[in-house]
């Protein structure tokens, strides 16, 4: 089945003459995979979600995109890293969904942090890429200094994150909301509301 998926993605994105040349013969199509390129530096059996992403988006993931995605998932330095890629190279439409599909595995909570100006665009693009064949859920949970932060609200906040984790989903966040939650926790501590502060600080540790 995965071999059929490989054939489908490569021939859907191949030049028209090659499609006409091999499309009628599945055996010849399979033999023509090397001519068409793709899947050279990654194994669809190891990353089946990437194969589904290719089919869903009608694309063939490029070698450069694979290298960048792997560097984000597992940085060579084993620490925080910064990567730079030119505009139009598929960062939001391809690489980010690839990374999310691997990291959001129900064992760890995947949180994508973007600038506020890019929130709506990223949400629309990401949902269209991972919400179909990949079956992943995306949530945006805003939080500001005006948001009630009692124990009831804190439990709801935690449950939403745990539900996303259990569904192998991703949290889409902006820096302002994360900072507001941290500051609210510190304010609870300063106000000697220790139980509420303990709950919020515990959530910060889990959500890092």
How would you describe the overall organization of this protein?
It is an enzyme of class 3 (hydrolase). One of its GO terms (biological process) is proteolysis. InterPro entries: DUF3638 (IPR022099), OTU_Deubiquitinase (IPR051346), P-loop_NTPase (IPR027417). By secondary structure, the chain is mostly helical. It has helices at residues 2-12, 16-22, 26-31, 33-36, 48-57, 63-73, 91-103, 119-130, 151-166, 175-190, 194-207, and strands at 110-113, 138-139, 170-173. The longest helix is centred in the last third of the chain and has 16 residues, at 151-166. A three-stranded parallel β-sheet has the order 1-3-2, sandwiched between helices. The model has no long low-confidence stretch (mean pLDDT 83). It is elongated, with a radius of gyration of 21 Å. 58% of the residues lie in helices and 5% in strands. The chain is built from eleven helices and three strands.
